[in-house]
Structures are given as structure tokens and as C-alpha cells.
Amino acid sequence: MRVSKMIHAVDTHVCGEPGRVIVGGVLDVPGSTMFEKMSYLRDEADDLRLRMLREPRGYPALCCNLILPPTHPDADAGYVIMEQVEYPGMSGTNTIAVATVLIETGMVPAIEPVTELVLESPAGLIAIRADVEGGKVKRVTFENVPSFAVHLDAELDVGMFYVIADADQVGVDLTPDNGADIARVCEMIKAATVEQLETPVHPKNPEIRGVTIGQLSAEATNPIADRKNAVVVSTGTLDWDRPGTWTGVLDRSPCGTGTSAKMATMWARGQLPLNRDFVHEGILGTTFTGRLVRETTMGQYAAVVPTISGTAWITGFAQYVVDPEDPFPNGFTVGDLWGGQ
């Protein structure tokens, strides 16, 4: 068998959201920080992301993470997050997947009942607390990077809609069978944001800029939840002048960074105080639990530091390879699933 570029990966789902974690086959990438390593992969070695996320090895809803040696002395491991159109600096769902894989595969020692470790993400250090029972990670809790609102209560004209990102105002129920409508509306909201609002830029890292994810919010249907959400991530380069290219896929989980963003806007409006649990329901009825633990500042913005708790399950172990005669070494997309590319 003539194969190359063998990648060892663990597949998971986090409250329904599929996530792949690369645990072998990539020794390291250049960069003195995890953000620099992410930038190198994005600018010089994007073939890894394409190979793992596009067909035939991937599909639109899949995310992928690359575990790397940490660059910070306080971190136990580093990781870079790869999604369909970008390299996010931080993702709650992917962080839960990575922590679960590290512990359950023995890459870091599992200590019961609680395993504590520090992960180095491109956005900074993430402290992890994992509840472990019988070798299974029952729950992962982490402190996210500070969250803040840039545009609060902004009104957007979207097609024939006059919309703020509340599901009841666009007439869409947040249920799995409405997934196509939810994705369409969120892509329209993102298009309107690009056209009508000043581009948000991270006050401490200008390379983090622009809106790439949309969220609709609604009343909860799970009796233990406070709110329900549907988050849509773009699956291709969008041409806002061509509606057929508005393509997105729903986050199957309650979304960790989406939950952080929702809590930050609620706090900015005086609707959510510090140190109160906020249970956020996803499209499948699964939940994450968030909590705002302290106030801070991020440049000129008032910000809050959130924690997120959730659970991941390992679904498989795989080795991915490239045949030297494969006509699609970096994968492909087809419009029936991926829309306009």
C-alpha cells in the first residue's frame, strides 16, 4: 500500500457537534506562540485543514483540532482549531473535545474525581477542570477568554426583514427540521452586518476581525434551560451579491463561544449578573452551562469572563492517509451539500 501523510485522529461529538482531534502525524509547526502556529497553518499549510474537513474525509458540519506541543511553560498541551472557512482563536465546543480526548486517551494523566490541566489555544491559556469517573470525562468546565459586546441593539435591514437576531422576529422556530431556514436567515444577518455596521476588530489583536458566525436566540424548550440558540457557521467563501452562495451549517451543540457571546450581551443589558448559572440549549435540546465569574476590560470595551461546562463523547479512532495517485489529495466540495463555493 502506497500512502503518505498519515494522520491519527480521534472523532468525538460534543452534545451533538462532531469534532475531530488530530493526535498524531504532525510533530509540530513553526511559531513561537500558538497564535503564530495557527497563522502558519492558515497561510502556509492550509492543505491539512482542507484534507481533514472537506469530502471525502470530512463534511460541512465537522470541525477539526490539531494537538501540538505547548509554547507556554504553564500549559500541558497546545491546540489549533480548524473550521470550514477559518481558524478560530477559541472555540468552546472544540476545547471540550480536546480536553476529553487528552484525558480519555491517556495523553495527560487522568485523576479522579477531578483532573485539572491548562490548554494553550491561539487566544491564550485555557484552564480546564474535568470531572472524571471510571475513566470517562463526565463534564468539562473551562474559563473562556473575556467576552464583550461591540454593537448592542443594532438594527439591520436584511432583504425584506427588519431584524435583530431573535428567532421570533424572523418567524423561525429553532428546531432541526428548520435547519435550512435558520442557516439562510443567519447568512443574511451576516451579510447585512458586513454591509451596514463598522467591522469589529479585537482591541488587542487586530488580526481577529469581522463577523463570521450568526446566532438566533429564542425561548428555551428544554425545561432546565434559560434560553435556546442556533449558531450558523459559514461553509464557503460568500458572495453577498449572489443569494445562492449564502451557505452555512448549524452548530449541533449549544456552542461555547456562542453561549459566551450571549451572556456578554445579556450582562451588558443588565439581564444577567455575575455568578449565576446560565443554561443554554442547542438545536438538539442538549445544554451547556455558562457562568460570568468576573468583570474586566478589553481595550475600550467593558467585558466579562465566562466559564462554560459541557460533555463530549468519543465516537471513533481513525488513520487518514493520502494515496500519491489520489486526484483529490486536499478534498473537494460539491454544491448539493456545500452551496456556492
Please give the structural blueprint.
Blueprint: E1 4-14, E2 17-24, H1 34-44, H2 47-53, E3 63-68, E4 77-82, H3 92-104, E5 114-121, E6 124-133, E7 136-143, E8 156-158, E9 161-163, H4 167-170, H5 179-196, E10 213-219, E11 227-234, E12 248-250, H6 256-268, E13 278-281, E14 287-298, E15 301-310, E16 312-322, H7 335-338
Parallel strand pairs: 2-3, 4-5, 11-13
Antiparallel strand pairs: 1-2, 1-16, 3-4, 5-6, 6-7, 7-15, 8-9, 10-11, 11-12, 13-14, 14-15
Offer a concise description of the structure.
This protein has 341 residues and is α+β, with helices and mostly antiparallel strands. The chain has helices at 34-44, 47-53, 92-104, 167-170, 179-196, 256-268, 335-338, and strands spanning 4-14, 17-24, 63-68, 77-82, 114-121, 124-133, 136-143, 156-158, 161-163, 213-219, 227-234, 248-250, 278-281, 287-298, 301-310, 312-322.
Tell me about this structure.
By secondary structure, the chain is an alpha+beta fold. It folds into 2 domains: 4-145 and 313-324, Diaminopimelate Epimerase, Chain A, domain 1, CATH 3.10.310; 156-307, Diaminopimelate Epimerase, Chain A, domain 1. It is 21% helix and 35% strand. The chain contains 7 helices and 16 strands. Strand 13 and strand 14 (287-298) form a beta hairpin.
